[in-house]
Write a structure and sequence with these properties.
GO terms for molecular function: metal ion binding; serine-type endopeptidase activity. This is Serine protease easter-like. The protein is α+β, with helices and mostly antiparallel strands. About 15% of the residues lie in helices and about 35% in strands. Strands 1-2-3-6-5-4 form a six-stranded antiparallel barrel.
Length: about 130
Amino acid sequence: CLPINQPSQILTYDHSFFVVGWGKTDKTDAPTTLQEALITRTNLDECRKFYRNSEVNDDLICATGKELKHTCKGDSGGPVFFKHPFGNTHRYVQYGVVSLGGNQCGVSKRQPGIFTSVIAMLPWITQQLQ
């Protein structure tokens, strides 16, 4: 599902997201099964510090992985989603798209990743769907 622009779906820092992909699991290995990781949103300043020459703007989400699990080469374009309450059940809502990560996968616990925010791009997405 796509997010809707309602206060109940606006996420703050320290929210955790799921990310899945077929990216490398370390420097050389490509997985044979779809991989999953839990990442936590952090302040954009963390990404600004880490990616000094990149343009990190408010249309992006900055997040770090836990226990060296994060995105890597081959994960770009994949979904970043959240299990959101919906009535008596839940729905998985896509909040981001894997965009940029560091060169060293599975090495640094503090290496943040950059994800394009679906909420920021929602006007463009809905226009394209018309």
